[in-house]
């Protein structure tokens, strides 16, 4: 069984990872800070946006792939994938631009929803 929906979202999220990574590297070149954040708040915010993305996206995509393999409905896969996408974009944008704000918190909620949903789906399928 091919996991078509998850494959699309994996591609989209891989492409988003590139500018997040480049923004950190670019700031390092600008500031000549090679390790950690050197006290630079802009670099720190970019690093956290990149790290938070990297910490959360893979586990949701793994759970999504497992849920799709276990024949989760397409509407659920799309709803979860879009929720993750909007959530990660909101979270990263606010973190990079301002550091804190309501959209950042909403971004985390939109990230946790598919994490819980796909994780729950997988656990439920294991007990069928």
Short précis:
The chain has one domain (4-126): Membrane associated eicosanoid/glutathione metabolism-like domain (Four Helix Bundle (Hemerythrin (Met), subunit A), Up-down Bundle). 83% of the residues lie in helices and 0% in strands. It has helices at 4-31, 41-69, 74-97, 102-126.
Can you tell me about this structure?
- The protein is mainly alpha-helical.
- Helix content is 83%, strand content 0%.
- The chain has a single domain (4-126), classed as Membrane associated eicosanoid/glutathione metabolism-like domain (Four Helix Bundle (Hemerythrin (Met), subunit A)), CATH 1.20.120.
- It is elongated, with a radius of gyration of 16 Å.
Keywords:
single chain, 128 residues, mainly alpha, Four Helix Bundle (Hemerythrin (Met), subunit A), 83% helix, membrane, Membr-assoc_MAPEG, MAPEG family protein, transmembrane helix, transmembrane
- Predict the CATH topology: Four Helix Bundle (Hemerythrin (Met), subunit A)
Gross morphology is elongated
Give the uncertain stretches in residue-range form.
Answer: none
Q: List the total number of helices.
A: 4
Q: Strand fraction band?
A: under 5%
Q: How many structural domains?
A: 1
CATH architecture: Up-down Bundle
- Helix and strand run: HHHH
CATH class: Mainly Alpha
Calculate the terminal CA-CA distance, rounded to whole Å: 19 Å
Describe the sheet with the most strands.
Answer: none
Number of strands: 0
Q: Portion of residues in helices? A: over 70%
Report the mean per-residue pLDDT as an integer: 94
The CATH superfamily is identified as Membrane associated eicosanoid/glutathione metabolism-like domain
Q: What structural class do the secondary elements suggest?
A: mainly alpha
């Amino acid at each position: 069984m091919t996991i078509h929906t998850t494959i699309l979202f994996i591609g989209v999220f891989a492409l988003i990872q590139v500018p997040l990574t480049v923004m950190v590297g670019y700031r390092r070149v600008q500031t000549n800070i090679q390790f950690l954040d050197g006290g630079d708040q802009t670099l720190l915010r970019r690093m956290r946006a990149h790290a938070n993305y990297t910490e959360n996206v893979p586990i949701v995509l793994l759970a999504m792939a497992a849920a799709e393999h276990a024949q989760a409905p397409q509407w659920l896969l799309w709803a979860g994938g879009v929720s993750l996408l909007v959530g990660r974009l909101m979270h990263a944008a606010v973190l990079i631009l301002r550091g804190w704000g309501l959209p950042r918190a909403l971004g985390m909620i939109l990230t946790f929803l598919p994490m819980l949903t796909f994780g729950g789906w997988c656990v439920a399928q294991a007990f069928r």
